[in-house]
Amino acid sequence: MVEMESAKSVMEPIAWIFQMLTGLVTILLITLHFYVTHMTSHEALKYAEVVSRVAQPEFKAMYAALLLIVSFHAFNGLRAILLDTNAGMRGRKTVNALTTLAFLLAFVYGLYLLFSI
Fold first, then answer.
1. Residue 110: inside a domain, yes or no?
2. Whose CA is closest to 19, among 65, 72, 82?
3. Which of 1, 77, 105, 117 is the most exposed place for a label (fewest CB within 10 A)?
4. Does 8 map to a domain?
5. Structural domains of the chain, count
6. Residue 55 belongs to what domain range?
7. Which residues have C-beta within 8 Å of that of residue 69, sequence separation ≥ 6?
8. For the CA atoms of the chain, what is the radius of gyration?
9. Claim: this prediction has a pTM higher than 0.90
């Protein structure tokens, strides 16, 4: 029991730091995304332009990074909210497992969609 509480006291500040960092990186990547899609050209939102842009490796890498960071940020935030309910150690393990699984499923599905273009 003491060992689990110790792990909790170490992991929660790390999770909080990652939450803040992913929030900042999300702001940067979303700003870049908006700049590229809305400020560079009026043609940027046409279907053919979007497909052409997303087919480029550097854009795929940027969108994959955005997907990873936003997915982690969202599911880590959900995990923190659910853990605030103080469901006990068993509930903590369940919440951690389910949010990790949901994150992985969302990320893998997003990558599948991104790289199928």
1. yes
2. 72
3. 1
4. no
5. 1
6. 14-115
7. 22, 25, 26, 29
8. 18
9. no
- CA quadruple 86, 87, 92, 97: dihedral sign: negative
21 within domain boundaries: yes
Distance CA 54, CA 49 (A): 8
Q: Specify the CATH number for the domain of residue 39.
A: 1.20.1300.10
Q: How many CA atoms lie within 13 A of 73 on its CB side?
A: 15
Contact 10, 2 (CB under 8 A): no
Within a domain: residue 65?
yes
Tokens of 105: 């499923």
pLDDT in tens, 4-40: 555 566 678 999 999 999 999 999 999 998 988 888 8
